[in-house]
Amino acid sequence: TALRSLLSITRAKLRQDDQEFDVAKKALITGITGQDGAYLAQLLLSKGYEVHGLARRSSTSDVNLSRLQWLGIEKDVRIVDGDLLDLSGLVRTVTDIKPDELYNLAAQSFVASSWQQPVLTGNVTGLGVTNVLEAIRLAKPDTRFYQASSSEMYGLVQQPVQSETTPFYPRSPYAVAKLYGHWITVNYRESFGIHASSGILFNHESPLRGIEFVTRKVTDSVARIKLGLSKELRLGNTSAKRDWGHAKDYVRAMWLMLQQDTPDDYVVATGRTSTVRTMCEIAFSHVGLNIDDHLVIDEALFRPAEVEILLGDPAKAKAKLGWETSISMEELIREMVDADMARHRKA
Ligand code: NAP
Ligand code: G4F
After folding, report:
1. Is 80 exceeded by the pLDDT of residue 329?
2. In degrees rounded to 5, what are phi and psi of residue 100?
3. Probe ligand 1: pick from 32, 35, 36, max atoms within 8 Å of CB?
4. Residue of 49, 146, 154, 174 marked catalytic
C-alpha cells in the first residue's frame, strides 16, 4: 500500500511538472496597436508567451493592426475590445484572461496634443492606470504589472543627468498625467503588495513610430523630399535635446523588469543626448541632402512649455537587469529613413 501511494504521488507530481512546463505564460498588453505594443508583442511571442492585446474598437475598421502587420504577427496575437476608461470591461478582461503579466502601454501619448485635450489626457494617461490596477487588484492580484512611465516627468530638469532619484517637474498635461500614473503604481505596490514596476523610459523610436513625433516626421519628410514628393520640412524648436534610443531595445527592458523577484522602478535611456537639429542632419545627410536647403522653422510648432533637455542615467537598469542599449541614434535614424523611402517607393 505504501509503495502504491508513493507511485501515485510521483505520477501526480510528474503530471503537475508536465503541466507547468507545457502551459505558456499569458501576457496582456494595453496599447498593443501602438509602437511599443507591437514590438513587445513580437518579443513575448518569440519567448513562447500567449499574447493578448487590448484595443479600441473603431467604426472605420475593426482595429488598426498595421504595426502588427508590418511585423508579420497580427495573426499570432489575440485582440480583445477594451478601453482604459472602462473599468468594468478591464475587470472582465483580466478575469477572463488571467494574465501572468500585464503591460500597461496605452495612453494619449502625444505631448503636443495634451494641451488641446488636457482632460482626456488626464483621464486616459493618468486615471486609466488606476483602472488597470483596480482590475488586477479585484480580479487577479498576483498579475505582474508594468507601467509605461516617461522621462517627460523630469520636465524642467532638476539635475543635469536624470536617474530614479531625480525629482520630477512635469511641463505638460501629458507629463502631469504620467506622474500620477507613476505614483499610483508605486502606491499599489506599497499598499496591496502588487508586483508593480514602472519603467521611466526616455524617448525611443523606430520605423513604427507615429508620424506626429519629431523623428518620424523628419525621416518621412526627408524620404518625401528625396523622392521629389515634397520640398520642405517645417519644425518648431530644433534646439531641444533628447536621449533617443530604439524601441526594440526598450521593450526588452520592460520584460526584464517583470522577471525580477522584486518590483521596482528603472530609468531606461542611452545616456547620450542630441539636439533635434543634429538628428535632422543625420537624416538629411543619409540621402545626400543639405538640411539648410529644406528646413523651415515655424513658430506655430513651438510648445507652450518646453522640455529643453533630457539625458538619462541607465546605470540601475544595467546593474540590476543586465540591460543595455544596442542600437545607436545614427543607426536608428538611418533605419527610419530607409523604411520611409521604401514605403514611399511602394506607394
Ligand atoms: P503610441 O504609439 O502612441 O501607442 C499608444 C497606444 O495607446 C495605442 O495602441 C492606442 O490605441 C492606445 N490607446 C490610446 N488611448 C487609449 C484608450 N483610451 N484605451 C485603450 N488604449 C488606448 O505610444 P508608444 O510610443 O507605443 O508608447 C507606449 C507607452 O509608453 C505610452 O504610454 C507612452 O506614453 C509611453 N512612453 C513612450 C515613450 C516613447 O518615446 N515612445 C517614452 C516614454 C513613455 P489606438 O491605436 O487605438 O490609438
Ligand atoms: O518627438 P516629440 O513629439 O517627443 P516628446 O515630446 O519628447 O515626447 C515623446 O517622448 C516622451 C519621453 O520623453 C514620451 F513620454 C512621449 O509619449 C513621446 O513619446 O518631440 C521631441 C522634441 C520636443 O522638444 C519638440 O518641441 O522635438 C521638438 N520638436 C520640434 N519641432 C517637434 C517639432 N516635435 C514634434 N512632434 N513636431 C515638430 O514639428
Report:
1. yes
2. -75, -35
3. 36
4. 174
Cell of 161: 543627468
Q: Which three cell numbers stand for residue 121?
A: 489626457
Tens of pLDDT, residue by residue over 203-258, are 999 999 999 999 999 999 999 999 999 999 999 999 999 999 999 999 999 999 99
Q: What length does the chain have?
A: 347
Atom of ligand 2 nearest to the CA of 109: 17
pLDDT > 70? residue 7: no
Specify which residues 297 forms β-bridges with: 235
- Distance between CA 289 and CA 219 in Å, rounded? 12
Q: Is the pLDDT of residue 18 over 50?
A: no
DSSP secondary structure of 288-309: T--GGGTEEE-GGGS-SS---B
- Amino acid residing at 4: R
Answer yes or no: is the C-beta of 203 below 6 A from any ligand 1 atom. Answer: yes
Quote the ligand 1 centre to 231 CA distance (angstroms). 31
Cβ of 35 closer than 6 Å to ligand 1, yes or no, is yes
Best CA proximity match to 265, nearest among 198, 320, 322, 313: 198
Mutate to test the pocket of ligand 2, among 214, 303, 311 (most ligand atoms within 8 A of CB): 214
CA distance 314 to 324: 8
Residue 235 CB less than 6 A away from ligand 2: yes
- pTM attached to this predicted model: 0.94
**Cα 171-160-151 angle, rounded to 5 deg:** 40
User: Which one of 109, 114, 149, 150 is the catalytic residue?
Assistant: 150
**How far, in Å, CA of 184 to CA of 133, rounded?**
9
Mark whether 152 is an active-site residue: yes
Closest-lying ligand 1 atom to the alpha carbon of residue 203: 40
pLDDT tens per residue, range 107-147: 999 999 999 999 999 999 999 999 999 999 999 999 999 99
